Amino acid sequence: MKNYDHILKKLKEKGIRPSYIRVRIYSYLEESRIHPTVDEIYEFLSKEILTLSKTTVYNTLKLFTEKGLAQQLNIEGNELRYEAIRGFHGHFKCEKCNSIYDMKISQLEFEDDISEFVINEEQVLVTGVCPKCN
């Protein structure tokens, strides 16, 4: 597992007890660039953690999201995807293969005065056809 000490430190800084399952889930999020669903995380990790349940994955991701270690993405209707917090960026979703890619973008600039609004989250989603499918 890459960056084990780094992950332990991150979890402890956020007040999260670093159990083996939490470390593995966070490691998977940091290493993964596919923006996995709960089911995808469970399918991948259940091969090595035989006692893992989907409920544990869901509850761990909820904790990570609440503590600011992970971000929940609602890219397609009711399907929630997750990623480790990597700073502000956008996402591109291919309409043919359904892959989701990170896109480097600068901060959003608003033309309207939004000073009275409280913004809790910014997400940018672009859809189209990726180079592999084009």
CATH superfamily of the largest domain: Winged helix-like DNA-binding domain superfamily/Winged helix DNA-binding domain
- Strand proportion, as a percent range, falls in 15-25%
What low-confidence regions span 5 or more consecutive residues with pLDDT below 50? none
Number of strands: 5
Please name the CATH topology of the largest domain.
Arc Repressor Mutant, subunit A
Would you summarize the structure shown here?
The chain is of the alpha+beta class and 134 residues long. The protein has 4 helices and 5 strands.
Please characterize this protein's 3D structure.
The protein is an alpha+beta fold and 134 residues long. The protein folds into 2 domains: 4-84, Arc Repressor Mutant, subunit A; 87-134, Dna Ligase, domain 1 (2-Layer Sandwich), CATH 3.30.1490. The chain is built from 4 helices and 5 strands. The protein has helices at 4-13, 20-31, 38-45, 54-66; strands at residues 70-76, 79-84, 90-94, 100-103, 125-128. Strands 4-3-5 form a 3-stranded mixed beta sheet, with no helix packed on it. It has a two-stranded antiparallel sheet with strand order 1-2. Helix 3 packs across helix 4.
Write the layout of secondary structure elements.
Layout lengths: L3 H10 L6 H12 L6 H8 L8 H13 L3 E7 L2 E6 L5 E5 L5 E4 L21 E4 L6
Parallel strand pairs: 3-5
Antiparallel strand pairs: 1-2, 3-4
Helix pairs in contact: 3-4
